Amino acid sequence: MVNNKTILVTGANGQLGKEFRVLAASYPAFNFLFAAKEELAIENIEAIKKYFSEGPIDFCINCAAYTAVDKAETEKETAFLINGTAVGHLAAVCKQFKTQLIHISTDYVFDGNSQQPYKETDATNPLSVYGQSKLKGEKLAVDNDPSVIIIRTSWVFSSFGNNFVKTMLRLMKERESINVVNDQQGCPTYAADLAQCIMKIIEKHAAFHIPYPVFNYCNEGAISWYQFAMAIKEISGSNCVVNPIPTSGYPTPAKRPSYAVLNTARIKEVFALTIPQWRESLENCLRLLS
User: Catalytic pick from 130, 190, 217, 226?
Assistant: First the structure.
């Protein structure tokens, strides 16, 4: 009997978690466990220990997160519990059980004041409670399990869950015109591409010694939210008018980094990855949604 390596995906009902559910069939060499928050509350360290003690887990991909960026401003305690404390618990248990932890973080750890794409080693300075809580999670993960791999990503979209692409498609059907911010720059990330990237890292894992735990991953190409909306309009064939507006015209409780472009040179070099262009991946996503 072949002893397949086991991968646990936490937060399994989110955008990225559901992409792993789709991918699992393509990776028969691995045994996948999918744990939504109802099955595994990562803020409960005893629950994590019990789950891990029931059988060997070789890799844990932590997709569990508190992602309500604006609500986090008033639900600070919950955001820090899920994105911070819980990540520390998970990392400690992964170390105890000799499980490789791969943790998903965000571009929101940066303040957006850079003039060039952010490298993994650039100074962090989150503007929002969400960003602060995710940075806390990164620090606790490294403190509790120095072998952790942290992947910072940005502007995630998918055919699953709630995201900018699906919101735009809905609004373009409901309204004759919409306003979209044009002075925030970033890189869209197709969750399906990110999931594929993580599986490549897992497949190549044994061959690499990783002295610095953080990697950036997003699709190729930097754009504004307005340009992203225009691409969605063009590809979907919508007649909705899209108007560019400044951030000041769309105030939100949480401040966003105005420049959140990530430099992905390191992940491409270390794991010999080719990353698709954002528009090509957007077309793939919209094909699924149509």
Answer: 130
